[in-house]
Predict the structure.
Amino acid sequence: FFFSGRETKRMVRVVLLLPFFLPLLICCSAFSPNPMLSRVITRATTATTTAVSRSSRNTNFFALRMSSERKAGVSAPEELRDFVKAAASKLVVVDVRNPDASVEPGDQKSLAVAPLPSGDIRPQALHLIWDRESNGMPIPDVPKDTPIITHCGGGGRGQKAKDFLEKNGFTSVLNGGGPKETECWAEFGEK
């Protein structure tokens, strides 16, 4: 099911206030001398928790995520725009996504939106898979001062790749997030 605008606002309020009121409701139900009141509070708590968990499965509910709520380390669209402009043809985009669904099932969604670099597709990009087991990736064969933007599907492994490259001497690296960060992706996704 989908929520109307009014219902969505109501659910957002419930989700935002739930962490404050849920402990109070639980506490009141545990120490209430009135068993009827205790049951009512327990049922209300359960109903609220169930409603929130059901609504969180709704894609409209998660569409409320503000574009400014990027994962930690993902550069702002403006910073990426300036970086891409300054780097021009020297820019290298490092795509760390893994096309193997058995290893990274979450990457399949972003691969449907944005293909891996190959040939004429994304000519300034390299595909260097981030390996969670070794906590590393292949080192790109480019000078250490090359302007690089790392990305995965949404920014987590992109940040790990950025940190890894900096530890290995690369001096000009940003984390671009990935196709999920649509404002950021618009700045470098075609490169």
